[in-house]
Amino acid sequence: MCGQRARRRVRRGSAAGSALLLGLLAATTVAGGVAVSGPAQAHVPDGHRSLYLVTLTGPGTAGRHDAPRHAPDASRAAQVLRQDALLDQVGASAPVYRWTTALDGFAVRLDAGQAATLAASADVALVERDAVRRLTGLDLRAAAGTPTHSVPGGGRDQVIGFVDSGLWPHSAAFAESPGMHRRPPGFHGPCRTGPGWRAGMCDGKVVAARFFVRGFGADRIASSARLSPVDDDGHGTLSASIAAGDGGVTVQVPGVPHRLTSGVAPRARVAVYKACWQAPDPANDGCSTADLVTAVDRATADGVDVLDLPVSGPDRIDTVERALLGATEAGTVVVASAGNGPGHAAHPSPWVTTVGAGTGEQSRGAVEIAGGPRLTGAMSSRRHVGPVRVVLGSDLAVPGRSSRAAARCLPGSLDAGRTAGRVVVCRRGGIGRVDKSAAVARADGVGMVLVNTGPGSVDADLHSVPTVHLDARAGSTLTAWVRSHPRARIRLVPSGTARPGPRVPGWSRGGDRTGPLLKPDLLAPGLGVLGAVPPDERGLRWDLESGTSAATAAVSGLAAALGAAPGWTPGQVRSALATTARPVPGAGPLRQGAGLAAARPAARPHLAYLPRPGDYRRWLDGLLPADALDATSVFVSTGATSPTVVTRQVTNVGERARYFSSTATGFRRHQVVVTPAAARLAPGESLTFHLEVYGAGPGAAQPLDSGAVTWTAEDGTRVRIPVVIAP
């Protein structure tokens, strides 16, 4: 059962409030996977007025190509006058937020009639009620401990803005390194202070910090949550360390050998935009869309190079997506999570690099039964245990507690007199996995075997005692053996790291088969990725993260590393990320997009797909069809005429002329022809080519067909785009 929490929220000092929920927000268990709760309606403080997000027609200052990102005061003053005229028209109160950079609009409290009046105005593009969205970390710390691998160059002077739960600035992952004392050119973000965050906590590594809570409501946050950029949850710290943590930082976890780790872009700077909050009930944690849009607007004005948004959402263009368009138009590379659980991938817009999760390394261990079978599972510890007696938790209940509670190793359910010096078999369920090993440790047990009772992941968590996590089949074998051999002795033996073939976990959201765009764009490792967190009650400052949040952070780091290369444009970065990804065997493009991100090929693609300035907004306004966008994928529906033709353009972004040839591969029911099939391109020269799709006519009862078009340079480098053909 894969929806249980792996760790508890952490209490700070003697306070009873919660302070750390590591990206595990409102996941509920279902058979065979995880269902993540949908957006919750935001708080309505006065009973009849709700917070609405109102977007005006036209772009913010970032989308006006004749205006700089830091628009003059006159431009903003004109926007404010236009906004005020609309507010006066409906008799609305002062707005909660105003947006002028990524988009032109505001968040304001309205009744239903006022909202309807504004929605009918010719000056208004969209009116939406505020809602609470979830962060996309999951309680699926699969058998891993996958480190991130830094990219040469490390994102020097690139600023990654993290719209998340804040940052724990005291982590060694965010120490100011030599050469980081000067402010990155073109960045202007401030350092907001508050409880636990002094002005001096912004330095050459953490270059800015803001927080936004008016949408969520300061009266709705947990008593332990701080109105400051400090991370009380852990999610933001972990994401930032995966993307931009310093290089060569020592990871110290009891029972696990010391290791060095690094963010993908260790020389990149971190800008904090805290917009996600803890509530008294963890089920109500999340991020108000009003706060999210404001964070995006401010990050765009500050001048971030990459924007990391690990937040779920609908598979439609909403206010958040419109704000992300403004960020893209300002020259920011926007990277966002596809989301976890059922449903289609979030962030369906072509200007967002949408990231799904793939598998990484797996830390393994075994239960060796004296005179019996050897059972393998997940194990993070490198300590051997045994041979020692093994006992079932159900046989260790203290007086007054049920055997069912003891079987699950609930806190206070185990009799220390019978647990001491033994390995305890604990059933999964009821509480977090690491809470079970903590209960075993408090009862003086020396190890734990965690067993699934049904379908679900096996997870290499950072436990209080050495632990092997077995699947349901192996768990049943062990349980039966112990019952028939009451004096059985076992050993817990770590067996190193396995590197299985890549796959796409079932909870990583895939794309919509009805198009018009292919999402997610690509994948990155999203199972058991190692990162920094605020210290928990055990003093641990590192943990494992699973979910599309971890994958998004890795791609954000890679985007910063690519963007730091001389002469690279944001369009080149977006293209290189997708066109050099490696396909995952057995997973269709609706599950993986272009495949797993690959750092080395991404650094030298030679060719790029570069949409013309203004194309994204023309597409949004219905003035440009999706198949005319110079996107890094093709989603085509075959029509009444044959062939169906799609046009794309590639540009030589290398430093010398090269010969390029094309291939169309993987299609089973259609013939795809690329015209022209080859060309020699000078630096900066572009080639417009056509994909001619021949096959079954309309109405044919055929499943989706898919393949890829690949351009190969004379030196062997390749750029590849996936193609999906719908009947």
Outline:
This protein is 18% helix and 28% strand.
Q: How would you portray this structure in words?
A:
It contains 14 helices and 36 strands. A hairpin with a 3-residue loop joins strand 5 (97-99) and strand 6. The strands form nine sheets. Strands 10-13-9-15-16-17-25 form a seven-stranded parallel β-sheet, sandwiched between helices. Strands 19-18-24-20-21-22-23 form a seven-stranded mixed β-sheet, with helices on both faces. A five-stranded mixed β-sheet has the order 29-36-35-31-33. By secondary structure, it is α/β, with parallel strands linked by helices. The protein has four domains: 43-129, Peptidase S8 propeptide/proteinase inhibitor I9 (Alpha-Beta Plaits); 159-360 and 503-565, Peptidase S8/S53 domain (Rossmann fold), CATH 3.40.50; 362-498, Glucose Oxidase, domain 1 (3-Layer(bba) Sandwich), CATH 3.50.30; 605-726, Immunoglobulin-like (Sandwich).
What is the tally of helical segments? 14
Q: What does the radius of gyration come to?
A: 26 Å
**What is the CATH superfamily label of the largest domain?**
Peptidase S8/S53 domain
The strand line-up of the biggest sheet is: 10-13-9-15-16-17-25
- Strand proportion, as a percent range, falls in 25-35%
What general outline do the C-alpha atoms trace?
Answer: globular
Low-confidence stretches: 1-47, 139-147
Please give the oligomerization state of what you see. single chain
User: If you average the pLDDT, what whole number results?
Assistant: 87
Largest sheet: 7 strands, parallel
Q: Count up the domains.
A: 4
- Find the structural class using helix and strand composition: alpha/beta
Helix content bin: 10-25%
Distance between the termini: 37 Å
What is the CATH class of the largest domain? Alpha Beta
CATH fold annotation of the largest domain: Rossmann fold
| Annotation, overall tally of beta strands | 36
CATH architecture tag of the largest domain: 3-Layer(aba) Sandwich
